[in-house]
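Contributing new complexes? Match this layout with S-adenosylmethionine.
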Amino acid sequence: MRYYGGKYRIRKDLWKILNKEAEGRVFVDLFCGACNVVEGITTATKRIANDNNPYLISMFKEIQDGWEPPENVSREMYNRAMNYQYDDALNGFILIGCTYGGGFRSGYAHSAGERNYAKDAKKTLLKQKTKLADAEFVCRDYNNIEIPEGAVVYCDPPYKDTCLKYYDSKFDYDRFTDWCESNKNRYKIFVSEYKKNEKSDWETVYERKSYTCVCKNLNSRKSTVEILQKAV
Ligand SMILES: C[S@@+](CC[C@H](N)C(=O)[O-])C[C@H]1O[C@@H](n2cnc3c(N)ncnc32)[C@H](O)[C@@H]1O
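Output block (do not edit by hand):
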């Protein structure tokens, strides 16, 4: 499913690095979004997928329980979901899967010709279903989740200096950095960011050229460099 800030493009690289780290440990995807990363973690003893968007988490839980989202979503349905008139899972599916650029509530993505956003999102989610069958979904602020000592914690928070097309449109970067600093000796913490926001005192374990959406026009892209840092 197309997801704003999703790691689909670099997911295989991240799986390689994080699967080595997660061997025999609990793996936590603290900002799981569309679950592009946690779905490929196969070595952990347990997987926890957390996000503070209740609609997104309900959607994944319902998929785990056998729900199948609709294949067509009209503008009328989109407008109803904007007023939260469906159950949480369907509101989530429509407000994420059927929007431009995969941002939350970021405009009805009109399906035309071959392109059917609802059908594509449904297909991706059903593909993920088996890969996520035993994942534990949690909906909390990242600061408020129980994590066992020694766990591998992957963090893909909203990036600094980007527009926040998420359920929560604010993110306090200093509070997040403080959380990493306070917890880096309890867990192995890995953080995704852009190269331009690299922290000089953390270890950069991966970097790759990539693309990002342009804030004002989610269909345009500009080049960037993605990094993965370990909080040390
Ligand atoms: C960059 S996206 C994650 C993308 C995900 N890694 C993927 O590949 O699909 C960031 C996520 O952080 C979530 N988020 C934002 N603030 C949060 C918070 N305080 N606690 C937990 N999750 C939060 C957003 O809802 C969003 O899904």
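Reviewers usually confirm one structural detail per submission. For this one: The mean pLDDT is 94.
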